[in-house]
């Protein structure tokens, strides 16, 4: 996970979208007419559609020329390898790799458009700036730049691919600072209105939600639904975080931030999503959920009450007792020793006796004074939350990893929630509007670009 965070520091946007159009002459292929509701999409479509040629619109050769800049198949392959290595994804199926290639091609097109637009505004990222950022990324991975280069090559990527991504991120950030941020103004009344709404909503439940959105219409709803179900299956089977899939599949602008919708109240969500999220527990994934315009897959990261202290934020002082099982310990022997361990911890009378009890059973003791209840696994957090100072949890663990118990030595309960400062609210509004204008600008660049696929 340390690597994944390192890549996140480089920049959130991993995948983009761009309209792909291709025409080929050849044999005529007949298709069934679309449902009558297809016209609702706002397009003037014929009732009987004929495709001239055998080109599958979902199959693209991974090369393109974007306003005279060439994106090669090697560029695509190396960026795919970079994403897989960054997310510790390991081997993926050929179908998943093909989908990822298409998405990477779109990302590289967006990246190229951003660099070109920055240059048209006399913004150039120097080689020294790129090198400095590359060195920082290497340090995030606990590697020297030379070791990082070796790691990238061994992963099937390259220094060049990573540095190109760095250049795109830096160029676009600088463009936004120069051409967008100065023209975004936040009024004092806006800030005050938000603070007033927060105060009025005190005690209301909020949800930290991530989303994958797939657009659909009457004509392709069944296919998109099947695709969404496939993504749900991938999420259930994979070890990757939800954000990894949001970057790959989501068609919403929030894919740039791994599908993060931030903290929202049920009233701020579409009715279908509000109903689902209110029934979810933290850590759960739900979907696909039919919403206007498509389907959503939701992940509930956490929930809380507005401006109300959350008992899970209490900071704990703990002592952990652990016994390990020697190699070759059979199940009966492990059960017997675990039972003896459980009997011993029942004799603990406050944290002052922990070391003495541990010595009688050969247990190791580790202190931790910084952990919060929310940092513990849910089932363990629920037990610890009910402990009084000096009490211990029931034994837990496994034969492979040993048996443990936590003893509560102290608890610092959180203070009541406080309103954010005016400056914090203003900064958040500023960032939201800059991101919105950045998306609008990128759409304009895509619309005006000359993209030739090879």
TrEMBL record:
It comes from Sphingomonas metalli. This is Parvulin-like PPIase. InterPro entries: OMP_Chaperone_SurA, PPIase_dom_sf, PPIase_PpiC, SurA_N, Trigger_fact/SurA_dom_sf. Keywords: Chaperone, Isomerase, Periplasm, Rotamase, Signal. Transmembrane segments: none annotated. SUPFAM superfamilies: FKBP-like (SSF54534), Triger factor/SurA peptide-binding domain-like (SSF109998). The lineage of its organism: Bacteria, Pseudomonadati, Pseudomonadota, Alphaproteobacteria, Sphingomonadales. PROSITE patterns: PPIC_PPIASE_2 (PS50198). One of its GO terms (molecular function) is peptidyl-prolyl cis-trans isomerase activity. Pfam families: Rotamase (PF00639), SurA_N (PF09312). Residues 204-302 form the PpiC domain. The keyword Protein biosynthesis does not apply. The keyword Isomerase applies. Residues 1-24 form the signal peptide.
């Amino acid at each position: 996970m340390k690597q994944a965070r390192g890549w996140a520091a480089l920049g959130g946007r991993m995948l983009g979208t761009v309209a792909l159009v291709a025409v080929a002459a050849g044999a005529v292929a007949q298709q069934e007419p679309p449902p009558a509701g297809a016209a609702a999409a706002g397009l003037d479509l014929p009732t009987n559609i004929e495709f001239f040629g055998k080109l599958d619109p979902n199959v693209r050769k991974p090369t393109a020329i974007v306003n005279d800049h060439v994106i090669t198949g090697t560029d695509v392959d190396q960026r795919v390898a970079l994403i897989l290595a960054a997310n510790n994804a390991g081997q993926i199926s050929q179908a998943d790799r093909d989908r990822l290639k298409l998405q990477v091609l779109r990302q590289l097109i967006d990246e190229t458009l951003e660099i070109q637009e920055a240059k048209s505004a006399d913004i150039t990222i120097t080689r020294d700036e790129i090198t400095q950022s590359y060195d920082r990324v290497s340090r995030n991975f606990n590697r020297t730049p030379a070791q990082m280069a070796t790691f990238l090559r061994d992963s099937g990527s390259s220094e060049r691919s990573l540095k190109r991504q760095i250049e795109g991120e830096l160029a676009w950030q600088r463009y936004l600072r120069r051409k967008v941020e100065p023209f975004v103004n936040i009024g004092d009344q806006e800030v005050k209105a938000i603070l007033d709404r927060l105060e009025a909503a005190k005690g209301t439940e909020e949800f930290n939600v991530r989303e994958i959105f797939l657009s659909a219409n009457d004509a392709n709803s069944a296919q998109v639904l099947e695709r969404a179900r496939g993504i749900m299956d991938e999420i259930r089977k994979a070890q990757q975080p939800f954000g990894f899939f949001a970057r790959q599949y989501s068609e919403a602008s929030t894919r740039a931030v791994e599908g993060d919708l931030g903290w929202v109240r049920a009233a701020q969500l579409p009715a279908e999503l509000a109903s689902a999220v209110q029934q979810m527990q933290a850590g759960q994934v739900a979907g696909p959920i039919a919403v206007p315009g498509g389907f959503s897959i939701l992940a509930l990261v956490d929930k809380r009450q507005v401006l109300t202290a959350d008992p899970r934020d209490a900071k704990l002082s703990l002592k952990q007792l652990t016994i390990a099982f020697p190699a070759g310990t059979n199940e009966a022997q492990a059960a017997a020793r675990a039972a003896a361990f459980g009997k011993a911890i029942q004799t603990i009378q406050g944290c002052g006796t922990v070391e003495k009890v541990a010595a009688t059973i050969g247990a190791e003791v580790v202190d931790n004074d910084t952990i919060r209840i929310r940092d513990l696994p849910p089932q363990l957090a629920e037990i610890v939350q009910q402990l009084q100072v000096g009490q211990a949890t029931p034994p837990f663990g496994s034969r492979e990893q040993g048996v443990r118990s936590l003893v509560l030595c102290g608890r610092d309960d959180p203070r009541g929630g406080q309103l954010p400062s005016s400056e914090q609210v203003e900064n958040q509004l500023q960032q939201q509007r800059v991101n919105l204008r950045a998306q609008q600008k990128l759409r304009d660049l895509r619309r005006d670009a000359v993209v030739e696929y090879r």
